[in-house]
Amino acid sequence: MFLVLGLALSGLACRPPLATSLSEAYRNAWLKLNRGDLQGATAEVENALQRSPLPDSEWYWRFTTLKAEILVRMRLNAEALELLRPELPVFLAKTDIAVWRRLTQGTAHCYLSQFERSTQFLNQAEALARTDHPELLGEVALRKGTLAYWRGDSAAAESEYHTALQISREQKEPFLEAAALGSLGLVTLKREHYDESIEWNQAALRLSRTIGAQTSAARILGNLGWSYFVMGDYENALDLAQQAEESFGNAGLVGNQVNWLINIGKADYYLGEYAAVEEKSLKALALARKLNEKVAIAQSLNNLSNVALVKRQFDAAEKYNVEALEVSRFVKDHSDEVSSTLIAGRIKSAQRDYQGARDFFSEVVRDPTAETSSRWQAEARLASVYEDEGQLANAEKEYRKAIGTIEAARASVGRDEFRLTFLSSAIEFYDDYVDFLIARGRPNDALNIAELSRARTLTEGLASTTEAASLNTSDVRPQQTAKKLNALLLFYWVGHNHSYLWVITPAKTSYFKLPKAADIEALVKPYRKALLGMQDAQDPGSSGGKQLYAMLVEPAKRLIPPGSRVILLPAESLYGLNFETLIVPDSRSHFWIEDVTLTTGSSLTMLAASATQPPPKDRSLFLVGDTKPPNPPFAPLPQAAEEMKAVKKYFPGGQTRVLEGERATPTAFLKSNPEQFSYLHFVTHGTASRVRPLESAVILSKESTSDTYKLYARDIVQHHLNANLVTISACNGAGTRAYSGEGLVGLSWAFLRAGAHNVIGALWEVSDASTPQLMDAFYRELFQGKDAATALRDAKLGLLRSADPDSVFKKPFYWAPFQLYAGS
Question: Taken in order 395, 398, 400, 402, is the CA torsion positive or negative?
Fold first, then answer.
């Protein structure tokens, strides 16, 4: 860190120019080091050492110790220790140099997993600092915290990091403060204090960027990525880990680069990019062996074991795993030892060595220090082993324990951003339990478990604004809900090995087995692409719509007579599919929309709540659109004014508020009391953020005092609504990213989360040519007394059945993007 040094040295008193020059070089070297310029710092040090070659001089040892510190930050720990092996001259025994020498030695031994030696050196550094150099006690605390973290003592690490933070602020040392903040972010994540971790890391990142600490900023970005990984958001985790890896690679910090190569591999594994995992992990393993980084070696081997398991290369998986376990136990890295133990259990299970598998999984279950995610994995995989052995009671007991552990962990997460992604890493165990219950002839119990995973963030967020939204799954009676809504409920579960459809009528609940996720997704993606490409879905050469109908609907066709009102509860890739466009292959091939009226629901729990909501007694409208967005990339919409005029005419004499043109800004919308209106309608551009869905936005006009022009989903959810219907006449209003259990998250989700009872949003880009016509017909039907689902269907059929045989609007691209989503 940057120090203000008092250098009144008698040996240099007669040569002030040299002393001044070396003092300046020392300051510059430290500043460059703390900012991440290792090459610049090394150049300063080497130049200075050429000018102070005497091994018994203070300047020689000052720059030699700094050189060793640079080597440690490059993870060249053995080289650093060799450089510091000679003892200091006696006259330097109580100087700050002596403290730094012990700090660097202690850190090097820590990174080499030689924890006892590290403890000795850091204790010596602390004793020297307390008696002679209290200005270095903050650095001592920081490094003692790092040692405690590496030893697996998170509580001690957190305490030391807090001490370092307090001292850094008292001494106004920003580089130390940034390091302490980032370290607190990492250790609180380890302690599963997820929201607190993000706050520490964000504060560290802001400070690091302010002071130009590039390597600190890169490290914190990587740590933030790890937070996303733990929360199941693998896309963000991968992006941030890649940024960190690139930064450290460019800076020549190979040791840090190895860490993020490993994390890139972990994220790629959960994203199914197994070739990338193998490539990154082999590279990380080679670098880790070269640096003798034991922890990195074990983690790289664990990544490779996981890939080998997926490829069913059990001998290779076992070879990697045996070494990983040995290394982890040797360096007493308990966290990685637990990971290796889980992998060992999976290998034994795959080899049908059930006793061996149970031993490994039970070891993790009994471990009070194992991370929560490791514990629920062990419980669920132990359940699977019991199931394979035919010990069904024990299997169900462990499945229930696993689900309970997952639910308890999720309850500790406060931020919607992370609650949304949390089930990504755990949904496979719900899937296993659903399969188990179906195989035991208990489809209704399986439905309850499937429902337990649905729309949790949405439902819990609404609990503060409506008592009905606080229902739990034991309160949900699907058949009663179907009766109240006068509808058939189609509840889908898309699983790795098996998928299911429950058809819920007022009289009974039936279930059907469907193909596995990979088979469904193989049809959904190309069919959606064909619709977006404006291909004719009814063309004889296009079979995707027919195949999907045969796969997803036809098994239950006899329970869904023409004219039915259907509420879909999709899953996984089905969230992005408009079922209305599926082709019914009878004597007159036609779209399914011609047979049924469709609405999309989030969960049975929310549908049960919505069944109690009365229709609005007023017709108050809040109309927003025809904005002046920045151009490019958002060009004016030529038909926006026409659509607004058409919508407004259906609200004569009622309370109407219109924001258009330059007045339609985000602040103006939020300050206009949108909660007072029963109908909200937006006519503008929309954006859907795949990486951070809560940054999806309605594009409005620029604020007069800033460049802000986006009404973000994250802001929408903060303002309660009572609207019966919100219509987002904009592109991608439904969002583009589906979360396990939660569905598509974007603008539609945000308005539902804010309290809207129904939302119309688009699955893809909408046409400015056809949309005004569609919306005019929708409101005309709506205010002729039809419900929203029927009115939207009839408006779509108006385009589909146009009297003009050459009308391009007959294609699903024009009428099918808009879907009705049912809320609370």
Answer: negative
